[in-house]
Design goal:
The complex is a heterodimer of chains A (113) and B (111).
Chain A (H helix, E strand, L loop, with lengths): L2 E3 L4 E5 L4 E3 L2 E3 L4 E8 L5 E7 L5 E3 L5 E5 L4 E6 L8 E9 L6 E2 L3 E6 L1
Chain B lengths: L3 E4 L2 E4 L4 E8 L5 E7 L6 E7 L2 E5 L6 E7 L2 E7 L7 E8 L5 E3 L3 E5 L1
The chains are: A mainly beta (113), B mainly beta (111).
Chain lengths: 113, 111
């Protein structure tokens, strides 16, 4: 069985500060990992994904994430956030040959001046 | 525009009404999904269709009835809903081995 834990339900941060949103997963087989962003009254938009290869993955809007197999983590980072990054962020995992994604409960990123 | 289109964007319906939500994708994906997103709750997977066959139904009440007439279209038929069914209903599609592409959702309010 696969599962995802997003430890922080809310992360407040000032504009231009760095941010890290944490994601830990559990799975007994190989995994594929995803981060999605949801702006108010919108669907989920893919930010980045790890399927294989380099453990540092770069996505849209200046975000990046690092796959750490030993710590079973896939934390999302941005060196300098903008007001427009205020949104809900979801981590998701897919195991092996399964097509189903399992989502975390989401982290609300609130960027203020 | 993400490639997955959901209509309508907003829907208000009474508890005795019958309505349908529509989802359309022209990405060539072979799987489609319905999710329910309620305030302060995790995303709930409702139904999964793979190659037009329903492969998963996560104990969803019978007042929700999905239909997948072809690989590009997915419907969610609604009847005799309850106020607690008010939520954002998200459709997604995927190709085996890849992530999902989501629509913008239908905001449903049951009065």
């Amino acid at each position: 069985a696969q599962s995802v834990t997003q430890l922080d339900s809310q992360v407040p941060v000032f504009e231009e500060a760095p941010v890290e949103l944490r994601c830990n997963y559990s799975s007994s087989v190989s995994v594929y990992l995803f981060w999605y962003v949801q702006y108010p009254n919108q669907g989920l938009q893919l930010l980045l994904k790890y399927l294989s290869g380099s453990t540092l993955v770069k996505g849209i809007n200046g975000f990046e994430a690092e796959f750490n197999k030993s710590q079973t983590s896939f934390h999302l980072r941005k060196p300098s956030v903008h007001i427009s990054d205020t949104a809900e962020y979801f981590c998701a995992v897919r195991s092996g040959t399964a097509s189903k994604l399992t989502f975390g409960t989401g982290t609300r990123l609130q960027v203020t001046l | 525009e993400t490639g997955v289109t959901q209509t309508p964007r907003h829907l208000v319906m009474g508890m005795t009404n019958k309505k349908s939500l529509k989802c359309e994708q022209h990405l060539g994906h072979n799987a489609m999904y319905w999710y329910k997103q309620s305030a302060k709750k995790p995303l709930e997977l409702m139904f999964v269709y793979s190659l037009e066959e329903r492969v998963e139904n996560n104990s969803v009440p019978s007042r929700f009835s999905p239909e997948c007439p072809n690989s590009s279209h997915l419907f969610l038929h609604l009847h005799t809903l309850q106020p607690e069914d008010s939520a954002l209903y998200l459709c997604a599609s995927s190709q085996t081995g890849h992530g999902y592409t989501f629509g913008s959702g239908t905001r449903l309010t049951v009065v």
